[in-house]
Design a protein that fits this description.
Blueprint: H1 9-27, H2 37-41, H3 62-76, H4 82-94, H5 102-108, H6 117-125, H7 138-145, H8 149-161, H9 167-184, H10 193-198, H11 202-212, H12 228-240, H13 245-254, H14 259-274, H15 281-284, E1 288-290, E2 298-300, H16 301-313
Antiparallel strand pairs: 1-2
The chain binds magnesium ion.
């Protein structure tokens, strides 16, 4: 991975937010396909927004829709207001989005209160380590970055816990928040992995260290990449083994499986590293984000750029200490 030297913070912030949405839309038509489909379709190695599988070219999925809900809640509520965020998720889920993670749907439609729904779901099902909390992490990572490592990681855990009862998902989201924070500062996110792992809950550190290790490859995954570990592991692998935003995204989608979310996570990281200017206009121009539950709203790239600026400039609210982690 090369790190461009002339990228300023504003460009990285925009790159993280838009880059994640672009990855989501780029990967959506390939969801649940095998490895190698993207490269076969686009022998140039980078490709276009092609649509398919029920998605229009450039149409973002639940990944970006939930990210927008998080991104709007933070400045509007002056910080981390978890009940508000959960309410926005629920309003969106009730309106029947085209796609929604199974686990997320169960939690949001259970009727249980915001601070119990995910925990109860985990208690009953015993499995709650889907990648759904990673896919919406770029925006809150931008918002909390200026508050430093501890606050950024803690916010990641708390937002993850709204829909995911398994601490593995909280810890992975905390790591992703931290890597994006480091990238926004202009430092190398891959070099920040050991420091982030040091702050992962000890019960989960070893498993995370395995998939985030420099030699890890998606072929070594022990679960489908809809799970939190191989999803973040694959995003880091894509970043590590390529030298541009475009190539990182193409590599992520070409792995197959849960391509929209793996590419959304890769895109948030790669966008923070290479900046918005590195994202090709053939990907940003068709990008659009419908928002079920919120009338006919459809956000486009300029709207996401405005949101990114707001996240970066807002005095990042204190994390209210009276809100407990579910
Ligand atoms: Mg999706």
């Amino acid at each position: 991975m090369n790190r461009p030297s002339v990228v300023d913070r504003q460009d990285r912030v925009a790159g993280a937010v838009v880059g994640s949405a672009v990855g989501d839309a780029l990967g959506a038509p390939f969801e649940f396909g095998p490895a190698g489909v993207y490269a076969a379709r686009f022998p140039d190695g980078v490709g276009t927004m092609c649509g398919g599988g029920g998605w229009d070219p450039g149409e973002a999925t639940d990944d970006t829709q939930m990210a927008v809900l998080v991104a709007e809640s933070l400045p509007e509520r002056d910080g981390l207001d978890l009940p508000d965020m959960f309410g926005r998720f629920r309003r969106w889920a009730r309106d029947g989005p085209k796609d929604i993670g199974l686990q997320t749907e169960d939690v949001l439609t259970s009727g249980d209160p915001w601070d119990l729904a995910a925990a109860l779901h985990f208690q009953v099902n015993g499995r709650a380590a889907g990648n759904g909390s990673l896919m919406r992490a770029a925006a809150p990572a931008v918002y909390f970055a200026r508050a430093g490592r501890v606050a950024t990681m803690d916010a990641g855990r708390r937002i993850a816990a709204l829909t995911h009862g398994d601490r593995a998902a909280w810890e992975g989201t905390a790591v992703l928040h931290e890597l994006i924070r480091v990238a926004l500062d202009g430092d190398h996110p891959l070099a920040a992995v050991p420091g982030a792992l040091d702050r992962v809950h000890e019960d989960h550190r070893e498993r995370w260290a395995t998939v985030l290790a420099p030699g890890w490859h998606p072929d070594a995954a022990t679960e489908f990449n809809g799970a939190v570990w191989p999803c973040l592991g694959t995003a880091l692998w894509a970043l590590r083994t390529t030298r541009t935003y475009e190539n990182a995204l193409a590599a992520a989608v070409d792995v197959g499986g849960d391509t929209d979310t793996v590419a959304a996570v890769t895109g948030g990281l790669a966008g923070a590293v290479y900046g918005f200017e590195a994202i090709p206009s053939r990907w940003t121009e068709p990008l659009h984000v419908p928002l079920p539950g919120y009338g006919d709203r459809v956000l486009r790239t300029p709207d996401l750029l405005a949101l990114a600026r707001r996240l970066d400039s807002d005095p990042c609210g204190a994390i209210p200490t009276n809100i407990r982690t579910p």
